Amino acid sequence: MILTESELSDPTNGEHCMIKAPRHSNQPVALSSFVGRKQEIARAKRALSVGRLLTLVGEGGIGKTRLAQRVAKNMQRSFGDGVWVVELANLTDPALLACAVATAFGIGDLSLGSVEHAVRDHLTDKQALLVLDQCDNLLGSSADLVERVLAAAPGVRVVATARLPLEAQDERVIRVPPLSLPSVQALRQREVLDRELLFGYESTRLLTERAGGALVGPGLTPDEVFDAVQVCQQLEGVPLAIEMAAARLRTMSLCQLNERLNGRLRVFTNEGRAVTAQHTAVRASIGWSYDLCAPAEQLLWSRLSVFAPGFDLEAAQDVCSGDGIERDAVPELLIRLEERAVLRRQRGDAPGRTRFHVAHQVRRHGGERLSASGEQRGLRARHLHWYTRLCERAAADWFGPMQREWHDRVRIEYPNIRLALQLCVSDREYTRDGLRLAGSLWFLWTVLGRLTEGKYWLDELLRLDTEPSLARGRALWVRGWINAQLRDEQGSATDAAECGVIAGFLGDRRLSADSLHMSGRSALYRGELGSAATLCKQAWEVYSRQANVDGIAAMSLVLQGLAACMSDDLDLADSAAALCLDMGSERREEYVRSWGTGLLGFVHWRRGDNGRSASLLRKSMHAKRTLRDLHGLTVVGEFLAWLLVSEGCCAEAVHLFGALDRLQSRTRSPLVGSERFLSYHDNAIGTARDAMGEAAFTASLASTGGLAPLEALDRALYGESTHLPTRKQAGTPWAPLTLRERQVAELVSRGLPNRIIAETLRIAARTAEGHVEHILVKLGFNSRAQIAAWAVEQRRRLDLRTRG
């Protein structure tokens, strides 16, 4: 299934509407002012008003990226479904292009179809602007993808940037010119050369703004103004070259800058290469900036080229220090490079973690220097090892309170992770490291829905390294999970079997448990419930004797419990769910606990305790929504839909079935491969259809088409049945809480902890904690502070009613 977080939460999803600002976007935050380009912006907006594909072309450093971002920012009010930027500078494999676009949109990939099909399907009814930045490595593939996307999505517009046009159908092309420059004639016609002249042209204004305090004073002399103009003329009005030159004005005068730049340009011009003047200006400015750096700054600049454009301080220290750079010196060196306009800080990506960005041309120059030094291969290896350790830490910490933090960090760092994987595929010496890296990312591929790209990397790496090893065994286990979710049952079984063979060869009991676990998962998806329960039980017996029982081990319990519950062994399922909940609570994690809660809700439904079951299933769904565990959401959602039918809430159940159908897109959850699961599903559908009548059933099922999936799920959580809290009750103070939950909410609003609440109400502390969790789920809140504010508001509303 393919779905984005925006689709999950936006009740107006699918409508082509004009709103004040897009609700969703991944546009980067600009940390410096945007100068000029009014004519180009106007031309771009006109081009997009009459056409749907615009390509901004020009030399590197000419400002294509900033112009595209500015156009997108200025037009964002026209796109109700947002503006989305895909950076392609580091992408060289056409097979990953659609994956990069899907990632930018936040599309989770749990589908049997291609990712490109999923992107087109997602955008079909959207009004969005897609920016494909730096398509140079993938011109043909980008053109093909854009043509198919635009054919499928009439509300989508595309802005691409590249040195050359995409040559796509109905493409409109704007060649981005240099910034405007004062001509010699204009200089001669002015009686006085002053600051007004500098602000009258784009290039000189950019130089002035980027120089900052260096050009601030009571006034510039005519000679200084002339020098400023000559600097911009020598640099051909190229923004990147001007920005780097402006950084030099902190340490030299305009006259010195003009003279030295003239000498640098003569050197580059005399090289005799067949390049444009703008290209020469960029190379000269960047090369000069490099030469003026101290040796340690030069060394760091070159080493930073192994990163994707973005990186954080911790990574820079680990990868770039040593052999001439002390680790503790890296922060100061980064500051100096920032002052020289070699890099800039980023904000908004990772709260509490400073990140830096290096422009493509600047990074490219650093890469050339690094290659010439003979250090490049070693630095790329250090980069690989750093991100391998990072992902292994994420995998180790996943079963704990840092799940969401690691999810966000891995998402932000994924361009660097992809670079590391590319090295492992291109250089056989590092293939084994690639297996470690790809295997550690099991949670990214499977839980967070990047199945296709995960399978791509694992296929490549497993093809290159066929020797039995722990890394290969773990990678086979992860690919087996991916294959199972993609309904490649034979592939999953084959991977599990080879994983078991390697485990026996190495004598590794943990890997043996992984093999049993995967075999059990495959059996469950095939509907072999007895075999699935036995295999997962055997896996758990091995896992439980290990020193560190992690989330992977706990998932074998979940699968064992699901198989047991569907084969009527409710005591075993209950026991498995309880163990999952205990482990999840002890580790303060959410993923396994959400599965344990959902499994326990399923058990209670099978036992006829629908009230307790409904509460648990809602709680599980709430947690899975927060975690973006869409596969889990479809499974637990099915359980809740069956319960609703058994309660006679057929209309609500059908709404939920409709939402689940959208969640599952063109295929059902892999668990539906179980014949027993399918029988529950089909029986519930049949019962609802018989109870409602064909016309009402069809209308109710179709009614979810105008709702976001989570809006439909909310109807199930707070539907119109007397058995469940309803949205109609929401206008009544304290609805939809029970009397006891209202009492707990009141005490929470007084700032009392759970222990004191329990003592006040004479209930167990764990019961009080459960009431608080139920309140959070029912009200859709995430904190006690929200409960407190809500309780105060209910008291105020009740007072008003009483007075009225």
UniProtKB/TrEMBL annotation:
What keywords tag this UniProt record?
Kinase, Transferase
Q: CDD domains per the record?
A: LuxR_C_like (cd06170)
Tell me where in this chain the HTH luxR-type domain is found.
730-795
Q: Which domain of life is it from?
A: Bacteria
Annotated signal sequence is none
| UniProt xrefs under InterPro entries | AAA_22 (IPR049945), P-loop_NTPase (IPR027417), Sig_transdc_resp-reg_C-effctor (IPR016032), TPR-like_helical_dom_sf (IPR011990), Tscrpt_reg_LuxR_C (IPR000792), WH-like_DNA-bd_sf (IPR036388)
Q: Does the keyword Kinase apply?
A: yes
Biological process (GO) annotations held by this record are: regulation of DNA-templated transcription
What Pfam family does this protein match (any one)? Answer: AAA_22
* Gene Ontology terms for molecular function: ATP hydrolysis activity; DNA binding; protein serine/threonine kinase activity
Stored SMART domains: HTH_LUXR
Question: Does the keyword Cell membrane belong to this entry?
Answer: no
Q: Quote the EC number.
A: 2.7.11.1
Protein name, entry field:
Protein kinase/LuxR family transcription regulator
